[in-house]
Amino acid sequence: MTAPAASPCINVCQMDATTGWCGGCLRTLDEIARWSSLDETRRQAVLAALPERRVAWLASGRTLPAPQPPRSRPR
């Protein structure tokens, strides 16, 4: 059995009001919120949508940020 698909999160969480996508990973709030409960088929469907969203994002003149290191959690 293979491991579930990893989240595409790059720790740049800024929602874009026009598209409804996160400016870091290009997922919707619903996709982000439900990621941990999605089955593998649904995770793969979200991941498959990201390249097209990336093209639309860049075509609109927006830029994509560089991935950020994981945030440390307060102890």
TrEMBL record:
Pfam families: DUF1289. This is DUF1289 domain-containing protein. It comes from Rubrivivax rivuli. The lineage of its organism: Bacteria, Pseudomonadati, Pseudomonadota, Betaproteobacteria, Burkholderiales.
